[in-house]
Write a structure and sequence with these properties.
Elements lengths: L3 E7 L6 H9 L6 E7 L6 H10 L4 E4 L6 H11 L4 E6 L3 E2 L3 H11 L3 E11 L25 H6 L9 E3 H7 L10 H12 L1 E13 L9 H16 L1 H4 L1 H6 L1 H20 L3 H14 L4 H9 L4 H7 L1
Parallel strand pairs: 1-2, 1-4, 2-3, 6-8
Antiparallel strand pairs: 4-7, 5-8, 6-7
Length: 308
């Protein structure tokens, strides 16, 4: 049984797929299996993967129809045999020491359920981009430990950088396939409630920016994020005792309400936005920005968007 199962997600990125596979094969940690999960590619990716399977480099799992990212990952989770699960999107890259550094950290600390790494953004040519935030956010990082509060603020984890303990999937369940592009964040939140998160502060995973990135589809991502923030609000009763003694968690819940206020108002429901901002102010009455946005909900939607 391999220690690591690598889920290589593939969808119409034949141009980048060989480099992704090269990065896997260059790993210094060798005890792994590769499951190539193709979600209905039409660009020759399947033929390339079948050639690699014939060479013994991987095992192919083909969706006959396009199921979406998270349903496809769940197909791989059912087939994976490893103690740990890694995910690599076919347009991203790994450095050679990635798996070795992560397995070492997981072996050292049983409290850690997921390890992610540093990295940077690359362009279509594979070179590092000069812009540190080409998609509107910098390459994220967290300290090692209990980082639930940080993860509530926003998604701090790049999918292609993770290595997950199988126990996390067994305890927290699979990905939610109803999400378009933020189902990874929802999964990381579930894991962060139950486990510590580990971080390897080295550039070992590289996110490729190109015209087909799901992150460019802002409206769908915003819809996902609003759903997640609504879901986070349901935790507060369950976690009342913890948030009472952890100021950073209480602040994170307040921030979540404020973000939800913005999402609701963007969606055209200023009344619902004001309710969310009021909840945020109950938890953190000193945040001036929340007051200002609450007042701005009375403006026309276009004016609110400009201000926020």
């Amino acid at each position: 049984m391999p220690r690591v199962s690598i889920l290589l997600t593939c969808y119409n990125h034949l141009r980048y797929l060989p480099a992704a596979l090269d990065g896997i094969q260059a790993q210094t940690f060798r005890d792994y299996e590769v499951l190539a999960l193709d979600d209905g590619s039409k660009d020759g990716s399947r033929e390339f993967l079948l050639e690699q399977e014939a060479k013994g480099a991987l095992r192919c799992l083909f969706n006959e129809q396009n199921l979406g990212t998270y349903a496809t990952l769940n197909v791989g989770l059912k087939e994976a045999k490893g103690e740990f699960i890694a995910i690599l999107n076919d347009d991203d890259l790994w450095g050679p020491e990635k798996l070795m550094r992560q397995v070492t950290l997981l072996d050292q600390d049983a409290k850690i359920g997921l390890v992610h790494t540093g990295g940077w953004f690359i362009g279509e040519d594979g070179n590092r981009l000069a812009d540190p935030a080409p998609l509107g956010f910098i390459y994220p990082s967290t300290p090692t430990g209990d980082v639930l509060a940080l993860e509530i603020l926003y998604n701090h984890i790049i999918t292609s950088s993770v290595l997950i303990r199988r126990e996390c999937i067994e305890r927290c369940g699979p990905f939610d396939p109803s999400f378009f592009g933020s189902g990874d964040w929802q999964m990381w939140l579930r894991i962060a409630r139950e486990f510590h998160i580990g971080y390897v502060d080295e550039a070992l995973a590289f996110y490729r920016v190109h015209g087909q990135n799901a992150s460019h589809q802002k409206d769908k991502i915003n819809e996902d994020d609003a759903r997640i923030r609504e879901w986070i609000t349901t935790w507060q009763g369950e976690m009342a005792d913890r948030s009472a003694i952890e100021p950073e968690l209480r602040s994170a819940f307040a921030h979540n309400w404020a973000c939800l206020g913005t999402e609701r108002t963007w969606a055209g429901d200023g009344s619902a936005g004001r309710r969310a901002y009021r909840e945020a102010l109950k938890m953190n009455p000193r945040r001036l920005k929340t007051y200002l946005r609450w007042m701005a909900t009375y403006l026309p939607s276009r004016a609110f968007r400009r201000l926020s």
